[in-house]
Amino acid sequence: MQLIVASLGAGTHLGLTMVLDANLKTYYCSSSTGVGFKVLLHNPLETPKMADFALLMAPGIEARVIIRPKISDASFTIRGIDIKKRMCYFTNEKDLQFYRTYTELNCKLECQANYTLSLCGCVPFYLPKNRFKKICSKKQEACSNVAKEVMETPNQNGSNCNCLPACFELQYDASVTFGKLANSFKIKEQLIKNENPDYFMDNMAVLHFYFTESQFTRNTKTNTGGLLGLFLGFGALSVVEIIYYLSLRICCTAIRKHKKNKRKTKKNVVENNNDAKLAYPFAR
Known about the structure:
7 strands; ion channel; Pickpocket protein 28; 284 residues; Helix Hairpins; ion transport
């Protein structure tokens, strides 16, 4: 199910409130050892990896989920810079087989699907594939798990996918606070399907999703800072450091030169005085 809701502003009263029913009586299997719900905030252009990155929400709680979008954008002025230096792809610079829009995660999932197919002869159901590819069964789960571990381990096959970040990225950070539901919590009877109040406390959770700000700023990647600052070694802070170093060096050089001249002048005065004392008797 895909639910599209637009927020009217900041705060819980302008956010999204959901009442979820775990229905524990019908539990059959789960990817985790607990019961409840998995919640993940993700880019709508990406396939969510619920088993790996989702937040767990237990029944019988009321939770508040603060959403903080992170928007990273790149200036078109860096398009002329080599990809190996700017370390990001624009949308039309790298095509994917199963996704219309390039993102780093989509690229990695597609690469993992191809690697799993070559290693196990099948593709897990949650990875992108066409209708001609075989879906991995329970017998091939061990092989697909090995392929997944190899792909996600740094400096192994995953590093050969060349999946750089996108020059435009949209991500979401979530902060969660929660408390136990009170018996005084009022809910419409049709939502609990004529069950007793204990059913609500044992099976349901109330989640509030909201923003704390009504406007968000972009982090722009340019050719003089931001992302390129990591690879070109130059940014606004570097300019300050250079000015500081040059001014400090000039001042130190001037001070040393002044002290040296002062010592030289003092030495000449002392030598002249000594010569005068020695020459005086003969002058008499």
